[in-house]
Amino acid sequence: MVSQKLQVEMLIVGPLASNCYIIWDDKNRTAAIIDPGEDAKDIIKKVDELDIEINYILATHGHFDHVGAVAQLKREIDVEFLAHKGDFFFIEDGKNAARRWGFIIDQPPKPDRFIEDGDIIKIGEHELKVLHTPGHSPGGVSFLHNEMVFCGDTLFQGSIGRTDFRMGSFEELKQSIKSRLYTLPDSTIVYTGHGPSTTIGTEKMFNPFVRA
Ligand SMILES: [Zn+2]
Ligand SMILES: [Zn+2]
């Protein structure tokens, strides 16, 4: 009996406690890493423990706390790094941005390919759908698979992503949450960029920043 569910493991990485997710297909052991913000060694150790093969490195957005380990990871596992073009500015500025916050990271590489709204990324037999969810940053995306969504810094448990960073927009963020996330089934698990997971139903009911 083989589990049909996409498997998820979370690591909290880096000084800003970013959530990095490793997701994989139990059947053929293919996998992806979402938001490797730091701690490449820990991520690789976990990948080895799980005995899975990484096919992609994915970024929900280009802030350094979500892409800070991409350069190191790519040296160890040479797979495609995918992100939305709208955040290329942040990726290019990654090392400098980290330095402005007092942190040191290796300059993240240019994405091998840009992803867009509606794109499908295959993880073994599972499909991740790309939803463009700008607002926290212009190229912010969420990755949707059945009743799970990895939304980066768009929506948090009881909170939302900051919109006071460069190129952020509260109006856009609100629109993204309402039209792309709150329209998902209530039972959808929201894997956030920082802090605990939540569900769409819970946030629709209790999130004080964006009401359903
Ligand atoms: Zn961010
Ligand atoms: Zn973040």
Molecular structure report:
By secondary structure, this protein is of the alpha/beta class. The chain is built from seven helices and 14 strands. Strands 1-2-3-4-5-6 form a six-stranded mixed sheet, with helices on one face. Strands 7-8-9-10-13-14 form a six-stranded mixed sheet. Strand 8 (126-132) and strand 9 (141-145) form a beta hairpin. Helix 1 (40-50) crosses helix 3 (70-76). The longest helix has 12 residues, at 170-181. It is globular, with a radius of gyration of 16 Å. It starts with 5 loop residues before the first strand and ends in a 6-residue tail after the last helix. The model has no long low-confidence stretch (mean pLDDT 96). It binds zinc ion (2 copies). Residues 61, 63, 136, 153 line the site of one zinc ion.
For the termini, the CA-CA separation is: 39 Å
Structural category: alpha/beta
User: If you average the pLDDT, what whole number results?
Assistant: 96
Strand content: 25-35%
Biggest sheet character: 6 strands, mixed
Note the run of SSEs as H and E: EEEHEHHEHHEEEEEEEHEEH
**Oligomerization:** single chain
Number of helices: 7
Cα shape:
globular
Unreliable stretches (pLDDT < 50, length at least 5) are none
Short description:
With 212 residues, the chain is an alpha/beta fold. It has helices spanning 40-50, 64-67, 70-76, 88-92, 94-100, 170-181, 200-206, and strands at 6-13, 18-25, 30-34, 53-58, 80-84, 113-115, 120-123, 126-132, 141-145, 148-152, 155-156, 159-160, 189-192, 198-199.
